[in-house]
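Give me structure tokens for this 143-residue protein.
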Amino acid sequence: MHLAYPAVLAALLFCIGLYGVLARRNAILVLMSVELMLNAVNLNLVAFDVWLRDTLHSGQALTLFTIAIAAAEIGIGLAIVLAVYRNRGTSDIDRLRDTAETDDAETLPDSADPDDADTDGTAPTPGRADEKTGKTKKVEATT
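Here you go.
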């Protein structure tokens, strides 16, 4: 068997997987495209192992390691996608770009401003609602 046939097939599979990673919006389809790319690499490893007639079959051994890593990647990837879906309600990658949670509360510096003092002249307590804005202010705890 010629080496060109499995090499061309692996290149096509890898290109399809790369297109899937770049063009898909659904996170599960992106994970499937990554799996397709890993399978193209596995096909190349086995094809070159057969073509070189390696007595140790190192290409097949590397393929087994790649399959094990791919299984772990899918397990962790699906767990992350399910957790994101439960929290956000979507697995659309374009909608998940803003993963940082925004907080409307402000952080006070170490020394409180005199303008923020209560009517009796004391500094405001952390977590207490500000009368002007109605928002709670956070103070970082330093130990």
